[in-house]
Structures are given as C-alpha cells and as structure tokens.
Design goal:
The chain has a single domain (3-159), classed as Ferritin (Up-down Bundle). It is 83% helix and 0% strand. The protein has 6 helices and no strands. The chain has helices at 3-33, 36-86, 91-124, 129-142, 149-154, 164-181. It is flat and about 75 Å long. Residues 1-28 form a coiled coil. Keywords: Coiled coil. This is Vacuolar assembly protein DID2. Residues 149-173 are annotated as: Disordered.
C-alpha cells in the first residue's frame, strides 16, 4: 500500500476522532442547557463517529496486510520465474506452490469481502441505546450535571424474574420431556 493511501486512511480516522470530540462537546453543551433530546442525538453521533474511526483503522490495517501479501506474491513469482529460467527447480513443484498461493489468495479475497460486508452492516445499524445512555451519564458526571428523570423514563423496562418455584416446575417439566425422548435401555 502506498504512503498516500496510508495517509488517507490516517487522515480519515483523525477526522472521525475530531468529529467524535466535537459531538461530545455539543452533548455537554446540550446537557448544560437541559436539552435531553438533543443530547441523546449528539451522544448517538459521538458513538457512531468513534465506531467509524475504529473501522477506518481496522480497514487500513487489513488493506496494508493485503498489499503486503500481493507484494510477496509478485516477489515470489519473480523468484520462481528466475529459478525456472535457470532450471534449478522442478517446474511442476513451482506450479503446485503457485496454485496453492492463488488458492490462499482467493480465500483471502472471500474473507476480506465478508469483513467489508459485515462492517457496512454494522455501521448501518443504529447505535445501541445502552451506549448512548452510558455516554450521557458519563458526560453529565464530568460536567457535574444532574440528569433529569427523563432519561430514566425512556430506559427500557426491566423484565421481572420468575419466582424460584416457577423455575423449578419448568425444570421438572423439561426433565420429564427429556426422559420421555430417551430410548429405554
């Protein structure tokens, strides 16, 4: 990978980090003004920018790894070409090595494609609510702001735990079903 491409990924990553910090500053300002809805939006944006920066770092690293492998392949092809020309090595063996390398390179392409699809899907999904709430609380604590009850009201209701007697009955029923499914020995 050329220095230009490395620099491009580094610049994009730094920009995403700066955007994240700017969103955190907006979040703090919104909390100071008591604008919880705006603060929630800024928190979501900050988390998304943080994920974007990490994804750019990962992508740059993976592209660098692929570029290194391609460079190795080119070097290997030149070396084997020279060796074949000198007739110092079996041409059939060289062919087998190159076929194996091409197979591994194809596997790498499939893995890279899968990773890119996964990263695209991940960034398309909305930011998890618990991360937004955590960032809101952290920013409020740093700014010595007491969050209004609005945040707690918007939090997802906690499911009630079944009493132990109900769990025991359920376990007994499942154990009975398991015994019925097992063959008699």
């Amino acid at each position: 990978m050329s220095n230009l491409e490395k620099t491009l990924f580094q610049l994009k990553q730094r920009k995403a980090q700066k955007d994240e910090n700017a969103e955190k500053a907006r979040l703090k300002k919104a909390l100071l003004q008591g604008n919880n809805d705006g603060a929630r939006i800024y928190a979501s944006n900050a988390i998304r920018k943080k994920s974007e920066a990490l994804n750019l770092l990962r992508l740059g690293s993976r592209i660098d790894a692929v570029a290194s492998r391609v460079e190795t392949a080119v070097t290997m092809r030149q070396v084997t070409g020279n060796m074949a020309a000198m007739e110092t090595m079996n041409l059939e063996r060289i062919s087998m090595v190159m076929d194996k390398f091409e197979s591994q390179f194809t596997d790498l392409d499939v893995q890279t494609s899968y990773m890119e699809d996964t990263m695209s899907a991940t960034t398309a999904i909305s930011t998890p609510q618990d991360q937004i709430d955590q960032l809101l609380r952290q920013t409020a604590e740093e700014a010595n702001i007491e969050l209004q009850q609005d945040l707690d009201a918007k939090a997802a209701p906690v499911s009630e735990v079944s009493p132990p007697a109900t769990l025991k009955d359920e376990d007994d029923k499942l154990a009975e079903r398991l015994r019925a499914l097992r063959p008699a020995t």
